[in-house]
Every structure is written in C-alpha cells, then in structure tokens.
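seq as requested:
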Amino acid sequence: MARPRRSRFAAKAGLVAAVASILLLLFGAARPSAHDPITTKITFAREIRAILSARCVTCHGPGGSAPMPLTTYEEVRPWARAIKEQVLARRMPKWHAARGFGAFRNDPTLTPIEVGMIVSWIDGGLPYSTSSPRVPAAPSTLVASAFPARRSLGEGGRRKIGVPAVRVPAGGAEATGPLRTRWVSGWSFEPGDPLITSATFTLADGTRAGSWVAGDGPVTLPPGTAIRVSSPLKVTVQRREAADFEQPYQARPSVLRLVTRAKAPARRAWIARESCASPGAAAGAQLLAIRPLLGPGLSARMAVQRIGAPAAILGWFRDFDPALARWYWLSRPTEFGIDARLSADAPCDVELLLSK
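struct tokens:
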C-alpha cells in the first residue's frame, strides 16, 4: 500500500515542478533576461542615458511627477519592455499633438531616430556599454546629467526663473498671494510633491493668468511682451493617485515664481477662452500659443482660416487627457486679426495666448 502513496506524491511533485517551470518561462518572457544575447551597438551609457536625460527625467527623475524614476541603468532595466511599448505607441512623453501637424517650440517628443535607438537597445539585449555590457559602473556614475537648460517658452528642465510669488503649503490644494506688480513676462512652477500633475493661476475675477503641467519648464514671453495682472493671484494644484510601487516622499511647499516688469510693455499679451470656431481677436493680434480643451480621448485638428489665404495648420490633438491640458507654443507666431477665425474638425474649446 505504500507504493501508491509514493507514486501519488511523485505525481504531485512532478506537477508542481511543471507549473513552476511554466511560470519561470512566462516571467522570463515578461522581462529582460540577464542572459539575453547582445545584438546591438546601442548602449545605455553612450546613447540611451542621453535620450532619457533630454526627454524623460523632467518627470521620471528624483521628485518628478511620474511614478518611477528612469535615471540609472538599474532603474530603467525592469521597465524596458514597457518603455518600448510606450515610445512605439507615442504615448510617452505625454504630448497630445501629432508629429507633422504644426510646429511647437516646447515639443518634447522623441525623434524617429531616438525611437529607433531605444527599440534597438531593448531588443538587442540592453547592453550598458561596449566595454561592460552586463556589469554597469557604480550607481553614482549612472545618474543622468542634471536637468539640462533648454530654451524658454516651456522647454526647460527644472530651471528656476523669477521671484517667489505664491507658495502652496505642503500637501495643500490652493493658496492665494498678493502681487506687487501689474505686468508679468514669465513664470516657473516648482511642484512640492511627485503627485502634482498640473497647476492653474487665476486672478481675483477668475481670469486665467497661466498654467503648468507636469513636464513643463519655465515660460518666458517674447521680448517686450507681458501679461497684465491684478492682485491677488490664486494658485490651484491637481494631484494624481499614488501608485502601489512608489517610494514614500517628503512633501514640501509648491512655489510659483514670476518674472515681472515695472513698466508697460511694447506688446500686451492676454489669454482668451474661445470655441473652436471663434473669429479673430483684433487687428494686428498675434497668436503665440494654444491650449486645447477637449474631452477625454477626443481629437481635433485646428487651423487658422483667413479670407483669400490657405489655412494655417495649428495642430492635430489626439487622445486628449484633460488632466494634462498644456500650452503648445507655436514655433512662429501666427497672425490672428479681424479677418481670421479658428476652425476645427470637431467641437471643442481652446485657450489662446494672444499679443498686440
């Protein structure tokens, strides 16, 4: 009678071993293997780190708004397959404007060459460097370069410009502060915790004075241009839910900094909220930036129509996420006088930053 028991035990052990083998195979297929053959000359140390530093660490860095940092080889490797899927689908970096429709100064998206490098690196075995494909250097040498300074108009990393104007308490949702100026020509916002995804700045009468979305850098208006403001200024922040795998953080105050002018500028800028079929603003007005306001997942192509002239394409905004409604700064200001109107192929609203 003992033999059947041993047979049943052996059968169960064999079944457990088979299931374990299948799970190990599935797990190994779901993440990069330490023994993947190296089939690419693209390396983390030479190409990938530079791309991540330029395109990703504004959000995926220490204290950034994204749930996982991507500043070291050890941090990037577990997310490699997910990174590949996101960049091929053009879901990262977060940017609603389709490439090839309009041109924007603050476009953070990956170029086709950068996408190809990332995919080649991941499919080619994730080598760290040509001299040490499997054993990276000490972690201290892997930190991506400090958030690089870029041009203004929302293109910067985490540079600070201006003087502190409003501080939102750590963990707070809004704050109001007095202004000692009538003209603002730029701003930067420093989120106090990684859960903050956006912030809006409004005047006492509810007029929108500006906004910030995770990933945005400092904003500097064109020379001789400023927005007229009135005191007090209210700052409201929005937060996302924390992911289960996120590390604890120490919240600090969020700070809005303003670049001010003592005298009236040569050109006054203002923000106007319009429908996507709005007429021109005023003779001689220029359109500097647009902020589409669409419903979740919606898309719209926008253009400026003028009598007797071809339409000037502004952008094609797709799969919209209202929580990340950012400003899109035109590479070149577009004339938006009384003979022009904004057109779109879908119902929508939009905020326009105009100057005259």
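Confidence is low (pLDDT under 50) at residues 1-32, 138-157.
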